[in-house]
Amino acid sequence: MTSVQVDDKHHDAGNEAVQDAEASSEGYQRGLGSRQIQMIAIGGAIGTGLFLGAGKGISKAGPSLILAYAIAGVVIFFIMRALGELLMYRPVSGSFSEYAREFIGPFAGFVTGWTYWLFWVITGMTEVTAAAVYMTFWWDIPQWLSALVFTVILFGANLISVKLFGELEFWFSTVKVTAIIGMILICAGILTIGFSDVGDTASVTHLWDLGGFFAGENGIGSTLMTLQMVMFAFLAVELVGVTAGEAKDAKTVLPKAINTVPWRIAVFYVGALIMILSVIPWTSFKAGESPFVHAFDEMGLGIGAAIVNFVVLTAALSSCNSGMYSTGRMLRDLALNGQGPRLFTKLSKKGLPVVGTTFSAAMMLVGVWINYQWPGEAFNYVVSFATISGMWAWIVILISQIRYRLKSDRGELPKSTFRAPGGIWASIFSLAFIALVIVTMGMDKDNRVALYGAPVWGAILAVAYFVLKARKTEGAAAVQRG
């Protein structure tokens, strides 16, 4: 559906009927129920960034990493509420590029759709490879073989039905949530009862008595430098927006899912870190090591390594599963708007974007081969570029919400039934925060390369867009002459 059609339709009186018509015209089946949407929303913010990446943040910033997660969590809540306002205005699959197209312009929609597709393809490449590495913890299996098997299984699940995708995400998220809650309860038991090898030394005073709360090498500066890692850990939280076109009773389910953001960040990130750093001194953590595994080892619970390995395995598979789901829908949205090959518009009899999903899965398999041929820093640089791609979706959501709110307040568009608290000011604050994160990336040599790659990708998309536009113009002129 084009932005012109959107503008025309939203001047009609029956806005709810229009939204239902839009959903059905996309051709998707509403196969995702409340239980699945809620778990997709909860699990979207929990991944390897927490289970593995937090170790580096703790070693850099000490206990102040907790504050970094808390502040970033507020920004994530603003972003999700901005997305929620747009979703209740018009719940469609492939929402980010649709809103960019309507409120920023056709070129922005083109860039957003292809950039978000790239983000998930690269993420899928790395996560399926990571899952294969995790398998070697138990069995001596060739890494390429595990990666291939996982990709085929997840690809098959995404082609069977959207409900099966939702079920897989439900159980993947359940494993992650259970692991974190279990860790919190064990830590609480150690602090109150004093069992395990660290029972005599565990204390909440660890949060401030080992060099202070801002105990990093550069104090608050060290905390600021962890913001990029913290925000990266939250990537994929926006995935719930892509499910809008296939959610049963979207107007009820999606707001409930989005409103879980504050408590899940408070529990799974802030709460978990408070408990772990109260039981184990922050000085014993180091980069490249899961804080969960290290904590279990320090407690004398050696089985923790196997448990956490299983959890990070499910986190990687969950991310790859989400990538296959979202990329197929993004490609179809682009194709429907004339910004991608028409082949991607095809749906299976079950209403699934089979061609787009197949193409994306094939690209992920190429990533496995690349990682096999050229391991090391080169592939890590590609991963850092994926994070920039992911944050672009957040920027688009915020700008679109600002423009939508201004139009709806002037009466040019109907008001959303789920308005974001703080209005445009919360979105402006969030944009400023993301800008700060990008600045800190430029100050970090390990992530700076991503900032070099972003303009190159933008230039490629600009050339592709204007070539596509020129061909359309020539085709229209030929038709008129005929």
From TrEMBL:
Chain residue ranges for the region called Disordered: 1-26
Record-linked InterPro entries: AA-permease/SLC12A_dom, Amino_acid_permease_CS
Residue ranges of coiled coil: none
TM region(s), chain numbering: 39-58, 64-83, 103-123, 143-165, 177-199, 219-240, 261-280, 300-320, 352-372, 378-402, 423-443, 449-468
Keywords (A to Z) from UniProt: Amino-acid transport, Cell membrane, Membrane, Transmembrane, Transmembrane helix, Transport
Domain Amino acid permease/ SLC12A: 37-469
GO cellular component, one term: plasma membrane
Membrane topology: Multi-pass membrane protein
One BP term from GO: transmembrane transport
Subcellular location: Cell membrane
Origin superkingdom: Bacteria
Family indicated by similarity: Belongs to the amino acid-polyamine-organocation (APC) superfamily. Amino acid transporter (AAT) (TC 2.A.3.1) family.
Record-given protein name: Amino acid permease
